[in-house]
Amino acid sequence: MDKSEKIIRANLTEEINLVESALSESYKNLQLVTDSNLVDYYSYKIKADEAKHKYLLDKIRRLAN
């Protein structure tokens, strides 16, 4: 693994950590809201962040191969 791959991997890892934090926050907020619009908002946000998380994990796995 050369230096540029290490930098890319570090950036991906940082982004994965950010997405995981956002997911955790969204799950907490979803449990607290009662307004149906906010329930919808957090549901869609969670779904989008889960898709992003999966994409980033796939991308980092491809780097490892």
Number of helices: 2
What's the main sheet like? none
What is the straight-line distance between the termini?
Answer: 10 Å
Residue fraction in strands: under 5%
The chain-level structural class is mainly alpha
Radius of gyration: 15 Å
What string gives the helices and strands in order?
HH
What is the β-strand count?
0
- Overall morphology: elongated
Mean pLDDT, to the nearest integer, reads 95
Helix fraction, binned, reads over 70%
Low-confidence stretches: none
Q: How do you describe this structure in short?
A:
The protein has two helices and no strands. It is mainly α and 65 residues long.
How is the topology of this model organized?
Blueprint lengths: L2 H30 L3 H29 L1
Helix pairs in contact: 1-2
Structure write-up:
- The protein is an all-alpha fold and 65 residues long.
- 91% of the residues lie in helices and 0% in strands.
- The protein has helices spanning 3-32, 36-64.
- Helix 1 (3-32) packs antiparallel against helix 2 (36-64).
- The longest helix has 30 residues, at 3-32.
- The protein is elongated, with a radius of gyration of 15 Å.
- The model has no long low-confidence stretch (mean pLDDT 95).
